[in-house]
Amino acid sequence: MADAFILGIESSCDETAAAVIRNGEQILSSVVFSQIFTHMPYGGVVPELASREHLKAIVPVVRKAIEDAGRSYDNIDAIAVTRGPGLTGALLVGISYAKALSFALDKPLIGVNHLEGHIHAVLLELRQHGHHQVQFPVLALVVSGGHTHLYLAEEKDAAWTYRDIGHTRDDAAGEAFDKVAKLLGLGYPGGPIIDRLAKHGDPQAVKFSFAQMKHRDRNPKNQHADAESRVDFSYSGIKTAVLRYVELNNMRAAIEERRAALKAIAKPTPDEYLRLCDKQTLDLVASFQRSVVNDLVSKTFHAATENNVSTLLVTGGVAANAELRETFERRGSEEGLPVYFPSRPLSTDNAAMIAAAAYPRFLAGDFAAPDLNAEANLRLR
Ligand code: KG4
Ligand code: ZN
User: How far is the C-alpha of 131 from the C-alpha of 144, rounded, in Å?
Assistant: First the structure.
């Protein structure tokens, strides 16, 4: 069969990305334009600004992906685009552009679920290394700024189907990293900053109790029959516990000083962040990260055992975290369960994963209708 070249487009949050992938396994190009510096002064993603930045970036980013791949628009076989979940206005920029390209070039359009994209970031790199088959059942932890989801995946007629066996009841893990960083005057995005700073603190210094990590859902609507076998995450309690620690230890003034000092630096370096943190802050950050990582790892392995899982995939922005990767790897080798991650650049949002996820759909002729629309709350099934 002739090679298939798929152009992927991703614009669900604060990265405008495009990539060209050959046969779902070879990355010919992957361009990611991050809007971090646009949102930094606001301490989080501002949806209106995200849409505006996507509008500015989409044409050059796609053009660069085509050029880097050494292709032209004419010799692309299909266009894949993220249809959700994400910010509606941001998603619409990618979708509108993908539709226009599909119409103008007369090439099929494929709508991709962003969460399935994250899962395919792992599969894409496994295939690159000649690893074409994973053992089912597969358990995938998607842990990012918007999601903390455990999916049990099975393969049916070459397509994967997913069962949501656990998710966060409140904040996503990445969201907790971002909120804690903001609260400590460390700015946005919190994950990569906390990851670097945590290495310099004592992770045993502050004890976060299990009760702070647990959310009791008393809403009868959420009391499912299979509640016993579900795994639930909750990260808003630990954020509140960090806030309480800050208040009790009179850290406010130091935090405001740090916030002002960082504001005055256009692009702070890791050393500048470190210089602006005292030991107490570093210990707090390290203890926070250790608690979140241990909670993610223990609940995921619990679910893996309960469901007799043969392969574990860990993906999404938070999968870039060094301590998370080390802890999952150690536990995986102790328990004899293979654990796979994407490389760091493919852990956070990118379009290579979108083009890779589209490949099985391309083979199956599963194309989107011209009325493809953004679905902010799209689920993975
Ligand atoms: O997958 P992603 O790029 O976007 C979403 O789909 O949400 O994930 C972004 C999230 C942010 O919350 C960011 O703080 C977090 O991933 N993140 C990290 C690291 N790198 C990114 N969290 C912890 N450690 C990191 N190294
Ligand atoms: Zn993502």
Answer: 25
- The answer to whether residues 145 and 218 touch, using CB atoms and an 8 Å cutoff, is no
- Is residue 258 a contact partner of residue 265, using CB atoms and an 8 Å limit? no
How far does the centroid of ligand 2 lie from the alpha carbon of residue 327, in Å? 21
Determine how β-strand 78-84 pairs with β-strand 109-113.
Answer: parallel
Give 312's Cβ-side CA count (13 Å radius). 27
Residue nearest to atom 10 of ligand 1 (CA): 145
Per-residue pLDDT of 90-126, as tens digits, reads 999 999 999 999 999 999 999 999 999 999 999 999 9
Helix H segments across 148-265? Answer: 173-183, 190-198, 210-213, 236-248, 252-263
Q: What is the 3-state secondary structure (H, E, C) of 339-365?
A: EECCCHHHHCCCCHHHHHHHHHHHHHC
User: Does ligand 1 have an atom closer than 6 angstroms to the CB of 145?
Assistant: yes
This prediction has a pTM of 0.94
160 lines ligand 1 (CB under 6 A): no
Residue 234, phi then psi, degrees to nearest 5? -160, 120
| Contacts of 123 by beta carbon, 8 Å cutoff, 6+ apart | 134, 313, 356
| Top mutation candidate among 177, 183, 377 for ligand 1, by most atoms within 8 Å of CB | 177
Residues 346 and 353 sit within 8 Å (Cβ to Cβ): yes
CA of 193 to the centre of ligand 1 (A): 11
